[in-house]
Amino acid sequence: MAEVQNIPVGSTTAGSIAVAAAAESTVATRMSAPPSFDVADFPVPHGREEEWRFTPLERLRGLHDGTALATGTGVKVDVQAPEGVTVETVGRDDARLGRAGIPVDRIAAQAYSSFEVAGVITVPRETVLAEPIRVAVHGEGGVAYGHQVIELGAFAEAVVIIDHTGDAVLAAGVEYVLGDGAKLTVVCVQDWDDQAVHVAQHNALIGRDATFKSFVVTFGGDLVRLHPRVTYAGPGGEAELFGLYFTDAGQHQEHRLLVDHNMPHCTSNAVYKGALQGQDAHAVWIGDVLIEAKAEGTDTYEMNRNLVLTDGARVDSVPNLEIETGEIVGAGHASATGRFDDEQLFYLMARGIPADEARRLVVRGFFAELVQQIGVPSVEERLLASIEAELESTV
Q: Rounded to two decimals, what is the model's pTM?
């Protein structure tokens, strides 16, 4: 698989910083309107805006122009939490809502303005959970708007699994708020039916010396557009953002990341991998990293790799770095899109492995590194089974 862009940036070389700043477009210019909770502050997109140019607006089912009206049969949310975790349903006047971030586009603002009640899951300080918190979001065929807050107190540790299934048109906001020294791992799975539409903004606010690990897994749905965003509430925060997607014929899967290094001595690492198969399969990955002038000592890297399994599939991959200080440990990005590695296939086939099985092994290996980092065996087994099922229809 050939590298199409790879720009490492050192902490002391002004030339490297200049190269990074000359990436396709900078973080500061990627939004056509400032963040706001008010949907009226965002014009209806027409598709020529930078943040909408890859998205097929006609397939959003009215989420972008206000014509998608919530129904009583949108989604059902079920939360299973270990003892000691507080699970609440609150109104939009609750002070805990909106702390991790503000909507940055019209659909996110529409979601925030339209939900009836929000869910708040709280893990008390210094609580270490032995079992995951499980949030099941099941679509029942209608239109829904939702909001979920997951908050960890100082030095708490938790794993949260958010599972999306069924059929729905859903616009939602998710907030992760980590207290100082907290550790949160989130596995967010999009395993929708073929007709579903899912658009969401995920905001993570990482406290001092806290660790946030996110796995975004996208298999199903007609159109899925996710916008994970990370900011830091204190120095020493760590963010690891992993993604896995398998895009089938006709599907549009879009992942748009932003990591705002607004505090000194924080780290981030983003690795997203995707496989595509079938006519008009379309995957979009946008990776934006902003290192503000005050964020000295930053260490960041982002990578996107895509494996195209058949003709007729399309990938748009755009990594961006904007660096406002030279006092960093390091920064870089890479993007690669290609077909099977012929050398790997030849090696396997030369040892008597049939061509179809050799291709399956290559794809399994492509994804295995990410899946094995989840650390929840039941989830890992399920994802590997889903990948195998996808491959059964291809290679």
A: 0.89
